[in-house]
Design goal:
129 residues; Rossmann fold; six-stranded antiparallel beta sheet; 2 helices; single chain
């Protein structure tokens, strides 16, 4: 299995990022606080359908996006697998709650809505922090 494409929208400090991931090894290089760890966390989210470094899903929605009419973060990954192409999409939509924003999670696998339990593990990833 190999991740080939990644799209992030309003995920943590990233307004929009779309990258192709050629080859077997990827290296993210940059200054501190530019989003390198957030990219890795987003990839991990595609595998586990949860944010590795957040207590609540709403915490991964970019702060500036919380003022939008429909605040949401979106993570989309495309991979090549032994079974064929795989596309996993996780969308977190925020709404006001009594103790801060609450996120509603929707998941699609190859364009079809799935329960979280059916999507977990479709993509394999290991995150070292």
């Amino acid at each position: 299995m190999r991740l080939t494409h990644l799209l992030l929208t309003d995920y943590r400090n990233i307004e929009r990022l779309e990258i192709d991931l050629p080859g077997r090894v990827g290296v993210f290089v940059g200054e501190n606080a530019q989003g390198k760890s957030n990219i890795l966390e987003a990839i991990y989210m595609l595998a586990t359908i949860r944010a590795a470094r957040a207590e609540q899903d709403a915490q991964v929605i970019r702060r500036a996006a919380l003022d939008d009419v429909l605040p949401a973060a979106r993570v989309v990954g495309q991979a090549e697998t032994a079974e064929g192409p795989l596309k996993v999409e996780v969308t977190l939509t925020s709404r006001p709650g009594p103790n801060g924003p609450i996120a509603t999670k929707t998941v699609k696998v190859n364009g079809v809505a799935k329960r979280v339990s059916a999507a977990v593990g479709r993509l394999t990833a290991v995150l070292f922090t």
